[in-house]
Specification:
With about 450 residues, the chain is an alpha/beta fold. It folds into three domains: about 60 residues, Nucleic acid-binding proteins (OB fold (Dihydrolipoamide Acetyltransferase, E2P), Beta Barrel), CATH 2.40.50; about 140 residues, OB fold (Dihydrolipoamide Acetyltransferase, E2P) (Beta Barrel), CATH 2.40.50; about 170 residues, 3-Layer(aba) Sandwich (Rossmann fold), CATH 3.40.50. The protein has ten helices and 24 strands. Helix 8 runs parallel beside helix 9. The structure holds S-adenosyl-L-homocysteine. S-adenosyl-L-homocysteine binds next to helix 6, strand 18 and helix 8. GO terms for molecular function: rRNA (uridine-C5-)-methyltransferase activity. Belongs to the class I-like SAM-binding methyltransferase superfamily. RNA M5U methyltransferase family. This is 23S rRNA (Uracil(1939)-C(5))-methyltransferase RlmD.
Length: about 450
């Protein structure tokens, strides 16, 4: 098999990244955007020892699960790499990922149907898009897969269309004022990224200009013009002077309006700052939490620990169902936000502490705390062994695991089983339609 060779392939499966999988001459071939059941003429792009990558040249037989997408860029850039698959099949695909992982781990457990998102497109309450010069003009868009080539775009598909409107209006203001886009190679120019956040609850929007310098000619004028775009209540400059792929720098400067916007999860309000982590899908998040609350069978006598508490979203949503909540989080400003959010909602039975959950939980136990339920919502890398051991020593009846990465979740569940906890079922919840990301909830109970 060689690069540029044309081959006829029958697609039999989908990979984790939703690439079509085919087999030929003992090789596994991953074909971009191809679906199971399809027959394609494909061009080989890259050959490794036992596998290769290819792209479709001609679709010979089309899958009934394929939908025609409006813009090729969505799949080209990886912005929405499932956009060519019918939504109900996307939900099946996500469930199947979890089933496959459980099978590999020799766990025979029920996986429920994936809970669909109320919005299939336009669900994101935040966009972060690169700004670059393309063909002599400042453009916003998305990077082509595995590259830093900007593909100019105005319709970001998974993002709230109101956010797209403000992104485009801001781009036009930057163009009109001749503000230079960031040049990654030379580490020169000004605007690196645009970030826009929108409150689903009240429609208010925050615009963040991520810039190489914290001041430059015309900045005040640009900020003033952006503040006049309808619904924009906050304009912030984030200063990122480094040559780095990390999007945001450490410091924010308020250019106009308020430093925060306010959104809701269910009936709980949250103040959100430029750097706050906030769940992306505002309408699906309360469904995720309600499902977790229901599956955990919480009662008004329960003492709950919200490990990995962020700005308090889970604990504050749970507080009214239980006796008390204690949250723990390593990022100091997030802890501060969680405390403020408790006050904002008049919630008096939730407190938040800054530190590592695995270090603090044992000290609470020795102080006499008895936790009935621990909620965990870790980052993609999952839990550490240290955390798992500390949580088991805390001796809760139940551990509610909310996961954004089923691979690390299954690994962690296996460890809990060895330590005397077991689970019956897993429910995938679609927080990120059109993308391969899978969110899951499961409840571990002490045996
Ligand atoms: N539950 C929140 C945040 C989830 S993101 C929400 O849904 O909004 C995971 C959070 O865990 C991050 O805020 C991260 O800073 C925090 N975190 C990571 N490791 C931690 C640890 N060892 N102890 C406590 N918090 C931790």
């Amino acid at each position: 098999m060689q690069k540029n060779q044309l081959v006829k392939l029958e697609i039999t499966d989908l990979s984790y990244e939703a690439m079509g999988v085919a087999h030929l001459d003992g090789m596994t071939i991953f074909v971009n955007n191809a679906l199971p059941g399809e027959v394609v003429e494909a061009k080989i792009l890259k050959v490794k020892k036992s596998f290769a990558f290819a792209k479709i040249e001609k679709l010979i037989k089309q899958s009934p699960d394929r939908v025609t997408i409006k813009l090729n860029q969505w799949v080209q850039t990886g912005l929405a790499s499932l956009a060519h698959i019918k939504y109900d099949k996307q939900l099946d695909f996500k469930r199947q990922q979890v089933i496959n992982l459980l099978e590999k781990a020799h766990l025979n457990k029920k996986v429920n149907a994936t809970v669909a998102s109320p919005e299939e497109t336009g669900y994101r309450n935040k966009a972060q898009v690169p700004v670059r010069k393309v063909k002599g003009q400042l453009e916003i868009g998305f990077f082509r897969k595995h590259s830093h080539d900007l593909v100019p775009m105005e319709n970001f598909f998974t993002t709230d269309p109101e956010i797209d409107r403000v992104l485009v209006a801001t781009r036009d203001i930057l163009r009109k004022n001749h503000i230079p886009a960031y040049d990654e190679v030379k580490n020169k120019g000004e605007v690196r990224y645009l970030e826009v956040r929108r409150s689903k609850a009240n429609g208010e929007m925050m615009v963040i200009l991520v810039c190489l310098h914290k001041d430059f000619p015309q900045l005040a004028k640009v900020a003033d013009e952006i503040s006049q775009i309808s619904d924009v209540v906050s304009v912030i400059l984030n200063h990122n002077p480094k040559k780095t792929n990390v999007i945001l720098g450490k410091h924010d400067y308020l250019l106009s309006g308020n430093p925060q916007i306010e959104d809701k999860i269910g009936d709980v309000c949250f103040k959100i700052s430029a750097q706050s982590f906030f769940q992306i899908n505002s309408l699906q998040t309360p469904r995720l939490y309600n499902l977790a609350i229901e599956k955990a069978g919480l009662t008004s006598d329960d003492t709950v620990i919200d490990a990995y508490s962020g700005i308090g979203t889970i604990g504050l949503s749970v507080a009214k169902h239980v006796k008390s909540v204690r949250g723990v989080e390593i990022v100091k400003p997030a802890v501060q936000d969680a405390k403020e959010n408790a006050l904002l909602n008049g919630i008096e039975n939730a407190d938040y502490v800054c530190g590592k959950a695995e270090e603090l939980m044992p000290s609470w136990v020795s102080e006499g705390m008895k936790a009935d339920v621990i909620f965990v919502d870790p980052p993609r890398k999952g839990l550490t062994l240290e955390f798992i051991e500390a949580s088991v020593k805390t001796n809760p009846q139940k551990i509610v695991y909310i996961s954004c990465n089923p691979a690390t979740m299954v690994r962690d569940l296996t460890m809990y089983q060895d330590l005397g906890y077991d689970f019956e079922e897993i429910t995938p919840v679609d927080m990120f339609p059109q993308t391969p990301h899978v969110e899951c909830v499961t409840v571990l109970e002490k045996k």
